[in-house]
Design brief:
The chain has helices spanning 15-28, 79-88, 124-136, 139-147, 149-167, 186-190, 226-236; strands at residues 34-39, 42-44, 59-63, 98-99, 106-107, 111-118, 173-175, 182-183, 204-206, 247-252. It is of the alpha+beta class. The longest helix is centred in the middle third of the chain and has 19 residues, at 149-167. The chain is globular, with a radius of gyration of 18 Å.
């Protein structure tokens, strides 16, 4: 059934996101020009004009925040990524540099699965769901994931990057600006070379688990429009601990807000 994660996939933490996205895309096809697939910790602070993809663009994306399991652009692929590229039939020549959001590391294509802007008719999210089994069914990759928890957590993003490298031309993709998917308080949670306390230009922000147990007067660390900071204080001060992250979906028919 479309949208239902196979039982064999559920050992991998975020597998359900992959198949749910495919269902959302299938339902949007023929009904919407653009679909935005966003994690539920996304908050809109301004109109998301960048979500209206220019003609000829089929994917708007943001790179991953941290190096984590990303392959560095200027270094040879490790055994994990060599195996993944081979299973997904991704030509190495399709690689190009991206820069991680938090630290500025130059990596091979590896994008954030929590912020995807797509044209449903191009079928990228359904391609993601078809690509993912090539990885989670492979015993070698599964053993690597068993030995390294980070790989088990993020292998779904490996499949996503393989899917768009194989399915879309370079001219069809667009890196969204740093105003989108802005990672509020990221340094406090995970460490970061960049500072993420100024929401003045942010269009959408992400807060991950920060509000599970926020420090007192956290709002005083922020800079930006006072009314937006006040709104965040009023609405995020009591986010229930352990709130489950599920995707948000927005469909756009025309470039009108």
């Amino acid at each position: 059934m479309l949208g239902q994660a196979p039982e064999e996939a559920t050992w991998f933490y975020l597998s359900r996101k992959v198949f749910a996205s495919a269902q959302a895309e299938a339902e949007a096809a023929g009904k919407a020009d653009i679909l935005a697939w966003l994690d539920v910790d996304t908050i809109f602070l301004q109109e998301p004009g960048e979500f209206i993809l220019p003609k000829g663009k089929s994917l708007g994306y943001r790179p991953v925040m941290h190096l984590n399991i990303s392959p560095l652009y200027d270094e040879p692929l490790d055994d994990f990524w060599k195996r993944a590229y081979d299973k997904m039939s991704v030509p190495k020549a399709r690689g190009f540099p991206m820069v991680t959001v938090a630290d500025g590391d130059k990596i091979r294509p590896y994008i954030n699965a929590g912020c995807l802007i797509v044209r449903p008719e191009r079928g990228l999210l359904r391609e993601w769901a078809e690509t993912f089994p090539l990885l989670y069914r492979d015993p070698v990759l599964k053993e690597m994931c068993r030995k390294d928890e980070r790989k088990r957590i993020f292998i779904h993003q490996v499949a996503l990057s393989g899917a768009f490298m194989r399915h879309l031309g370079r001219d069809e993709i667009r890196e969204l600006s740093g105003r989108v998917n802005y990672p509020l308080f990221f340094g406090e949670m995970f460490g970061s070379k960049r500072d993420f306390h100024d929401i003045g230009e942010a269009v959408t922000i992400r807060y991950e688990s920060f509000f599970d147990n926020p420090p007192p007067d956290w709002e005083k660390r922020l800079s930006g429009p006072p009314d937006r900071i006040a709104w965040l204080k009023a609405h995020l001060g009591d986010v229930p601990r352990g709130t489950t992250l599920a995707p948000q979906v927005f469909i756009l028919r025309e470039a009108v807000f």
